[in-house]
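I can't quite decide. Please look over this sequence plus structure tokens:

:::
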Amino acid sequence: MKRMSSMRPVASFLGKAIIPPLLAAVLGASQLYAEPYTGNREANPAQNQQGESAREQAEQLLSDARRQLRQERFSAARERLEQARALDPQVPGLRELERDIATAEEEAAARERAEQARELVRSADRLRREARFDDALAQVDRALELDPEARNAERTRERIVSDRDRARERQLRQQVERRIEAAQNALRQNNFDRARQYEAEAREMAEGLFEREIERLATRIVDQEIEVHLNEAERQMREGNFDRARQSVAKVYQIDRNSRDANQMVARIAREERRAVEAEARERAGDQLAEASRLMDANEPEEAARIYRSILAVLPDHRQARRGLQSAEQAMEAPEPIEVAQVTEPAPEPAPEPEPERVEVAQVPEPT
């Protein structure tokens, strides 16, 4: 309707500026510009002849309009239609032709949109092959806006989405594989913090992919770190550094509180430490026994017992130390001898010496 209204000034122009001179040339200026006759048509044959001539021209214009319509020259067809309307608004076929032109224009516009949509779909498929998936989907959307029934549009969209998802999955796999490989390289260097970092990144971006691989990687990180700490504990234990060995085991418990290997290592460290202490005690036992024996001889059983007990605290089966302790305890339990004070008596006076007896000697007569 808008197009018809826009053509009315043209028809008016044709009716005023072109048609009258044309008719004047054919019928004569006097007949063209004569006053309209309202009486009997037979009384004015010139006017009747003029009307018939206008009808013929209008029909000719409509015929030309149909020819232009068949060639899809819609502007020219409408121009001829409006010219015919100006000559004879009642010419047969005018309105039918007007509807045909409108229908043809709509069909032509639809065909043009459909062709544009098909071209957009072809362009989308080219972009799909170039892996430009977002641009390809945008082309399909524009094609469906032009023609909701665009041929192959939906199928092309499905192919684009499928290829995009596969490409994303491939890219994701590559990224996850690189993280897993980086974690494995870190493990070869016993860099467990870095290995855990890469493992966490792989798990975060995997989106359900590589679940088994990532779980195996996590298990390997734990097992290898535990093995490193246990090996360090073993080394420290063999070198007699039992406290450091227990520190290494403590790191294992931080990873796995229920580690059976850690429990076994703790028991081994305790046994080895006890053996080391016993060996050291045996080395010192000879000197300690000699010192205890000297204290017993010096009548110091308490000190001797203390030495014997220190030996038995480490070596409870040491027979010599146990016998020495029994002797020291018996010595401590025996009563001490009572010391009696000696009173110094005055020396007796010497007895008077007896007088020597007089011995009478018989006088022996002298020989004669």
Remarks:
- The radius of gyration is 67 Å.
- The mean pLDDT is 79.
- The longest helix spans residues 260-297.
- DSSP finds 13 helices and no strands in the chain.
